[in-house]
Specification:
By secondary structure, the chain is of the alpha/beta class. The protein has one domain: Decaprenyl diphosphate synthase-like (Undecaprenyl pyrophosphate synthetase), CATH 3.40.1180.10. Helix content is 45%, strand content 14%. The protein has eight helices and six strands. Strands 3-4-2-1-5-6 form a six-stranded parallel sheet, with helices on both faces. β3 (97-101), α4 and β4 (129-136) form a beta-alpha-beta unit. α2 (30-51) runs parallel beside α3 (70-93). The two termini are 29 Å apart.
């Protein structure tokens, strides 16, 4: 993407929807769709790194996904573990920092150890930050932030009226990274499904009918081109933005 008019988002957040339907269309088990989805992740991570995107957040497994059939959940956990084993070295070689956000306590000890090792290996990398949301929910994230602040109030370390939007933000799992500029959801659904609820207050949304396994670099470029045409006012008027650009 060489067009100088294209505005590259600093942070892109994606709900990767449509793996199961992709497999069903091909008369394959749902798990094959999830495997194809992992391949799609590789391509999008590569493209984001090429474009200079700073953060890519992917909704891999929501806190609601535990409601799926037990066999599918078990296979998803195996796939997550397999992807970590196979990809973390490549991520590290490409200067990509891996972070996993969510309530990890429900995962097995072995998987939590894998996650910790992968994060430790890549923690000093300075390229793209790959943010994987696993057993994550936006309401859970806000709740755990407020709970931490409430504990500080109970200990007398913080006055209740000193709690601000900024202090809540500082205790979210995404505190160290910028809020998303662009949110993409594949698969045709048009909802945020409890993903980064606090963080996406001013995010631009892009919905596509393309199923996740078929979402490639060209599709990502199309989403970014759409983003570039948006006027992000953040509560201001178009005239105010124009005056600022002329200053």
């Amino acid at each position: 993407m060489s067009d100088p008019a294209v505005n590259i988002p600093k942070h892109i957040a994606i709900i990767m929807d449509g793996n199961g339907r992709w497999a069903k269309q091909r008369l394959q088990p749902r798990f094959m769709g999830h495997r194809a989805g992992v391949k799609a992740v590789e391509g999008i991570v590569k493209r984001c790194a090429e474009l200079g995107v700073e953060v890519l957040s992917l909704f891999a497994f929501s806190s609601e996904n535990w409601r799926r059939p037990g066999k599918e959940v078990s296979l998803l956990m195996e796939l997550f573990s397999h992807a970590l084993s196979n990809q973390v070295k490549k991520l590290h070689e490409n200067n990509i920092k891996l972070q996993v956000i969510g309530d990890l306590e429900r995962f097995s000890d072995a998987l939590r150890q894998q996650i910790e090792q992968a994060q430790r290996l890549t923690e000093d990398n300075t390229g793209l930050t790959l943010n994987i949301a696993a057993n994550y929910g936006g309401r859970w994230d806000i709740t755990q932030s407020v709970r931490q602040l409430a504990q500080q109030v109970a200990k007398g370390e913080l006055a209740a009226d000193a709690i601000t939007e900024q202090s809540i933000n500082e205790h979210l799992t995404t505190a160290a990274i910028a809020e998303p500029d662009l949110f993409i959801r594949t698969g045709g659904e048009q909802r945020v499904s409890n993903f980064l609820l606090w963080q996406m207050a001013y995010t631009e949304f892009y919905f596509t009918d393309v199923l996740w396994p078929e979402f490639d670099a060209k599709q990502l470029d199309r989403a970014i081109a759409s983003f570039s045409q948006r006027e992000r006012r953040f509560g201001r008027t178009s005239e105010q933005l124009q005056d600022k650009s002329n200053a």
